[in-house]
Amino acid sequence: MSTELFPIPPPVRKSIGVRGIKEASKMNERDWQRLRTLVMAIAAEFLNTQDKYEHQDPEMVRLFYQTFHSEWPEVVDRYQMSWVLVRYLKVYLMKRVYRKRWSDKVARERIAMQVQQQAQHHCIQVCSALCIARLLDSQNALQDTGSLSVRHCNTSTANHGVATAVSRRATTYDESRSPSGSGMLRPPAIPRSTVIAPQHSGSSSSPASSHSHSAPVQRSETVFQFLQSTTPSLVKFVPEFLSAGIYDQNHLEDFLTWPKEAQHNFLLKTFRMNALELGALLMALNSRRRGPSDM
Hints:
Layout: H1 18-25, H2 29-46, H3 58-71, H4 74-78, H5 83-176, E1 195-196, H6 207-214, E2 217-218, H7 221-228, H8 238-243, H9 249-256, H10 260-270, H11 275-290
Antiparallel strand pairs: 1-2
Helix pairs in contact: 1-5, 2-3, 2-5
């Protein structure tokens, strides 16, 4: 350090920065770098470099000055009350505090940003999971709705078929009970190929006998045997049975499936029978219904 005749007084302004202290001290570059190096090293040893000068421990501050003066005693002789050392130390500690605050602020902002990003990522994951769950629920609901619709359609179709069948049977039964007999079920007739003259019992003057001689009828052994098995024999009604369409075993079996009341009405309106003949025929029908084998 260059020596001068008079000590260098402190600047009038107290709030000056590092540049102002350097200019007021009139140090050369080598002495200024020595000052900075000693202040940083001794402050790191005795002071809290993350706190201001006013908040330092007085005993530690005293030890700082004592150590510095022992290392560079010329400072005391050239600068009154070592003002260059005091002011530079204050500015140095203040910058350290501001730098620490800034780094802490940056760290807090970085942590807050990371937390926010993690929260957003978590929110995105939760929203994605909820969307996927809702999509799966919607697909399951659509599949369940489709299955219910198919089952409903199948059930409706089956119910419609059952209702149609029941309606047809009810219509058939109602027509069979009709007094006029116009809607009565009749087995379909087939073409008459081979005909014979029926065999009748009784006098030739009866209406049934005259009808049988006047019109040929189809031969049917099943109907003949059935009417012959009655007591009394009703063979004379073979032409009426054939004219009504009951000419084989299948049609006779179909006629046996009719309700008893429908059979009774059909016989009264189709055949001219007395009470004895009607009773005999009904008993034969009941007997054949219990045992459908040919008689």
